[in-house]
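Exercise 3.2. Students should predict the tertiary structure of the chain below and write it as structure tokens, then compare their answer with the key that follows.

Predict this chain's 3D structure.
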Amino acid sequence: MGYLRIRSRHQPYEIAVLAAAPLCGILLMTLDVRPTSVQTSMPAPIQLAWELGLIAVGVGGLLGILWPGRLSTGLGLELASVLVLGTITGMYAVALLVMSGRNSIAATSFVMAVTVGSFWRAAQIAIDLHRLARACGIVPADQLRAGVT
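Answer key:
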């Protein structure tokens, strides 16, 4: 039998983005400011969901990375967070591109990099969860509880 390899849950770029997301969401809400592209292209309830999503993604993702319990639970929290992060950054990139066109190439490129990176990390986590589930099926449960593999 081979070995179980779980990709590191401590990736600096991911942690930096997840730490910045709630800060951004909180500042947008408390200062009551929004990018023009968001104000113009998204209805008010979607803007609020976008801001709350930034907060939830950051908190949930960091909680998943630092989860002290079962590895699968931490990976599941992280997976949900990076999927939502990829979705909301994709929404912002589309709004930015539609409203500002070619003038937003640089900003859109960086935001899309976060989107692509989020979905890439989600794929890695999904593979890791699949490997973990397969490994748990091979090793008897009593050995897992005892920590012997």
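Discussion points: The chain has one domain: 12-146. Residues 12-146 form one domain.
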